[in-house]
Here is the input.
Amino acid sequence: MSIDFESLKDKAVVAAQTGVTRVKELTETGVAKARELADTGAAKAKEIAEIGKLKVNNSAEQEAIRKTYSELGKLYYAERGSAPEAAYADACQRITDAMARISYNNERIADIKAAGQLTDEEVEAVETETECCCEEPKEDDPPCCCGGAPADDEDKPE
Here is the structure.
């Protein structure tokens, strides 16, 4: 049995060349896939960044709307608060009641200051030290650790 080394050599060269060609094809395909994935990732990142910017813009617009609603409410109350239309009567009354409570509290503060001969600076120093560490309490919450009563949701501005 004789072995044809020349034929084996030719077959080995062809196999090696085929292998090299196949590796080149796979490498090119892999590079193309990697490039495609990178481009897709970059496009997704740009889209996500744009969505983030738009959400921030929406938040700013919502804040502008909230402020404008507040201004609109203040204007309405200033012009029509004493004789509001039926749909606004309850809200105007809540504002009037809250203003009356604030006025009463301010009178009490003035009386207490006068009786105790306290200065504004002394009162402000105490207020700074005793600021409430709690979140704003809800209607069903017990009194806060700072001595505050639960908030009445009806008195909160919207």
